[in-house]
Amino acid sequence: MEGFAALYIFMLAAFTGYEVISRVPVILHTPLMSGSNFVHGVVLVGAMVVLGHADPEDPVQLVIGFVAVFLGAANAAGGYVVTERMLAMFKGGNKKEGGA
Amino acid sequence: MANWFIQASYFVVAVVFILGLKAMSSPVTARKGIVWAGYAMVAATVVTFFTPGLGNVGLMVLAIVAGGAVAWWSGKTVKMTDMPQMVAIYNGMGGGAAAAIAALEFARGEIHDPVVATLAVLGALIGSVAFSGSCIAYAKLQGIMKNAFRLPQQNMVNIGLAALTALLGLAIVVSDQPSSTLIVLFFVLALALGAILTSPIGGADMPVVISLLNAFTGLAVGFEGYVLGNPALIVAGIVVGASGTLLTQLMAKAMNRPITNVIFTPISGAAAGGEGEAIEGTMKEFSALDAASVMRYASKVAIVPGYGMAVAGAQHKVWEMAQLLEEAGVEVVFAIHPVAGRMPGHMNVLLAEAGVPYDKIFDLEEINADFPQIDVALVIGANDVVNPVARTDKTSPIYGMPILNVDMAQNVIVVKRGKGAGYSGIENALFYKDNCRMLYGSAQDAIGQVITHVKALES
Question: Tens-of-pLDDT digits for all 459 residues of chain B?
Fold first, then answer.
C-alpha cells in the first residue's frame, strides 16, 4: 500500500472512532468497550492470512500461526458473546420486567 | 475475480463495523449493533478462506474451532459480576494475536521495507504489552493475584525497560535480516514490560487500565493491518484505538485521575495507608428493623449500590425491596457513580439484569444536587465513591475524585460486611458522621432481613 494513502486512512479512521462514540451515555460504557473489543477481533482475518502463507515444513511458523489464529478466534468469539449478553439486557426499553 | 470479491467484502465489513459501533452507543440500537458486527465478522472470516494460495487450512480450521469454542463457552458461562475480567482477557488475546502476526511475518523473513518493519515492530510491542498487561488485569480481578506489587524505583524500571525494548525494536527495523535471538529477546522484553506496567496498578484504576489496553490492541491490529496490506484491519483497528482512547479519557475523568497518574502513581493499599488525616468519631450500628422502618416512613430513598452489592449477587433482592417500598408510597431512586462496579456502566448492566427500569437510575451529575432533599441514602457495598474526604481532605489520595454526596442526605444507612477500609484501603469519613448508621452483614442477608421487616410493617 502506498505510504501516504495509508496515513490518510489512519487519520480518517481515528477521527471516525472518536466521533462515532462521542455521545455515548455512561450506562453503555462497559458494553461499548466490550463491543469495540469484539471489533478488533477482526485480527483473526490477519492471523488466518499469515498462517495460510506460513511454510508448512517449518514447525516454528506453524506454531506461531496457530497461536495467532487461536487467539484471534477467541478474541472475536468471546468478545461477541459477552457483549451480546450485556446488551440483551437493554432490549425492551423501559419495560418493567419485574423483580427476582 | 476471487481477490476482487474478497477486497469488496472487506470493504463492506469495515463499513458495517463502524455502523455497528455507532449503533452500540445508543441504548435503543445497541443490541442490533453487536448483531450486525457479528455477521460482518463471520462474513470476513468466511471470505478469507478464499484468499488465493492459502495453505494450512486444516490447522487453521482447528485453531478457529478451538479458540472460538473455548471463548464462546467461557463467555456464556461467566457471571455478570465477572464480566470486566473476561473483557480484559479476550482483549489480551487480540493483542497477542496481533503480536503473533508480527512474529510470523518476521519468521518468514518477508519484511524488508523500513516503514512496514517499523509498524510491524510497533504493533508487536503494543500487542505484547496489551497481552501480558491484560493477563495481569485478569488475574487481579479474578482474585488469582491478590496484591499489587511495586518494584523499588518502579517508574525508572518502567522507563528503562521501555527504552531497552524500543532499542531492540529499532535494531530489528534497521537490520535487513534480524536474527531470531534478537526477535525472541524483543518479544520477551515487550511481554515483561506489559506485566511490570500493570502489576502495581490496583483498585479503582483497573477499569481505566483495561480500557487503555483495549485501545492498545486496536492500534496493534491497525498497524499489523498495514503490514498485511489489509485495509479492513487498519480501519477496524484504528477506529477501536481512537474510540478506546476516548473511552479511557472519559473514565479517567470520572475518577479525576489523569491517565499518567494511573500508570505512574497508582493508588495502592500500602501507599494510601500512611496518608490522609486521621478521622475522629465512632461508627454507629443499626438493626435491620431500624433500617426498615426509617425507609418505610421516608418519602424519598436513594439507593447507592457498589461492587459489594454485585459480588453478593444482591441486586435482585435490592430491587425487590425497592418495589416493596414503592408500593408503600416511598419514592425510590438508584444513584450510580460512574465507576461503581469494576467498570463504568457495569453497575447499570447489573441493575438492568435485575429488572430495574432506566428511569429510576440516575448519574452522579443528575442526582448530586438532590441529596439534601433525600430522606435516606442507602449505601450498599460502596465505599470510596461516597467518601467525603475526596471533597475535604487535600492529603487524601482520592482528593478531587467526584463522589456521590450521600453525606448530605438526611440519613445515611451503610450496608457493609465488616469494619474494614475500602478497596483502595482508605478510611471512610462517611461512616463516622452523625447522620450515618451502619447495618453490618452481607448485602444479601441484610437486605433480606430489611424486606422481612418492611413486609411485617405492612401487615
Answer: 678 999 999 999 999 999 999 999 888 888 999 999 999 999 999 999 999 999 999 999 999 999 999 999 999 999 888 888 999 999 999 999 999 999 999 999 888 888 999 999 999 999 999 999 999 999 988 888 776 677 778 888 889 999 999 999 999 999 878 888 999 999 999 999 999 999 888 766 788 899 999 999 999 999 999 999 999 999 999 999 999 999 888 878 777 677 777 777 665 444 444 445 566 677 888 889 989 999 999 999 999 998 788 877 888 999 999 999 999 999 999 999 877 776 777 888 888 888 888 889 898 888 999 999 999 999 998 888 898 988 888 887 778 788 899 999 999 999 988 776 655 667 788 988 889 999 988 888 999 999 999 998 877
DSSP, res B285:
B
Residues of A in contact with B74 (CB under 8 A): 78
Q: Is A63 on the interface with B (CB under 8 A)?
A: no
Annotated active-site residue in B113, B176, B290, B384: B384
**Residues with Cβ within 8 Å of residue B86, at least 6 apart in sequence:** A78, A82, B74, B75, B78
Total-model pTM: 0.81
Domains annotated on chain B, with CATH: 83-270 (no CATH), 288-458 (3.40.50.1220)
Residue B175 contacts residue B240 (beta carbons within 8 Å)? no
Q: Does A46 touch chain B (CB under 8 A)?
A: yes
Helices marked H in B363-442: 364-367, 389-392
> Using the beta-carbon criterion (under 8 Å), do A87 and B237 form an inter-chain contact?
no
Q: Which residue has the cell 478510611?
A: B427
Q: Is A92 left (phi over 0), alpha (psi -120 to 50) or beta?
A: left
A100 near B CB under 8 A: yes
DSSP string, B306-327: -HHHHHTT-HHHHHHHHHHHHH
Strand partners, B301: B332, B376
Active site residue B82: no
User: Would the CB atoms of A37 and B87 count as touching at under 8 Å?
Assistant: yes
- Tell me if B457 sits within 8 A of B330, measured CB to CB: no
B45 touches chain A (CB under 8 A): yes
Distance of alpha carbon B172 from alpha carbon B129, whole angstroms: 18
